[in-house]
Predict the structure.
Amino acid sequence: MGRLYARYELESPVGLERAAAVIAGEQSSGTFLRLPGETDALRERSGARVEEIAEHSVSERPSLPCRTSGGSYTRGEILLSWPVENMGASLTNALATVAGNLFELAEVSALRLLDVDFPEDFARAYPGPAFGVAGTRRLAGVEKRPLIGTIVKPSVGLSPQDTAALVRELAEGGIDFIKDDELQGNGPHCPFNERVEHVMRVLNDHTERTGKKVMYAFNITGEIEEMKRNADLVRDAGGTCVMVSLFSIGLAGLSAIRAHAELPLHCHRNGWGIFSRSPDIGIGFRAWQKFWRLAGADHLHVNGIANKFTESDASVIDAARSVGEAMFADSAYDAVPVFSSGQTAVQMQLTYKALGNGDFLYCAGGGIMGHPGGVAGGVASLRQAAEAAMKGIALDDYAAEHAELRQALAMFKDKRT
């Protein structure tokens, strides 16, 4: 079996070398003192290794509250590795290994998991996304260009009939993809089974009339058996996608629904700010997305350029690129990056250029439903922006001959970066 590698940004009052050794011991065979059973042979066989240490800076104060004080606090990157025999090819146990008690150590005044590299053992244990980019394009009937999507708004409060009425308007406006908001579950005002029944009646009728099957991601987040039943309900009704909230269901939940569901898994990362907002503690997206892709995520949210949150454009683009990067020699495990959060026609071309291709899902709420031309005008403006990007034509030049795009640029000019 191979080795699991994890890269961290570390700050410590005891120096990087000593702190790295403490982390390696805590997360493998050691504890706060040497025990009789921890023989040299056992340490050699099962102990974590410190592979690299690179010092970056020294400060006078700790970045986070720290029980151990020092005259200075050294910051840099470390690379650790573990034999897979320690945890087996198990995502849940790998997470406990690379992101467990180490964040709480007294020798640590800042620690952030930056990236993880899994050995081929995990590729043999986890099939990864069942659909990815190619499967999603096939089901949505969209080739080459970005998929245009939106979110049901208001997020909650609509009845199944209200939801279906909005879906009808969106489908007739030319949308490719619609999703439940992550806050919309299975409450009494909009029961899941009734929502599926009413929405799919509209979408199936639309398919019969036009030949286009709009993809709708129904939020099945819940207990594992409940998610399985609801995934089957969507499939039997003619649906082509289900959605889960990643941090709510966890890795075991995602793996379980991947093994059962016969539809793409649209994976929402709500709660992401807990892990991402501080530069001094947490888990980077590059690390998390590898766990999620292995567990079976077909679509992964990556925020958006000029978004309504705090994430920088550079971070968003790095996240989007990461979900399409190959993980293993023979298996890409690619997922569809999902751009959302305040997206309009203005950011489409920037997004296309930054990613370098059209293999993404572009979700806009106000950017579609707030367009002066209504839903159809909003969808048209996004498609026109995508056409301009794919043809390499400046957005303003393309807008001169396309009214919907011109209206969008005028309305959403504050989104220009």
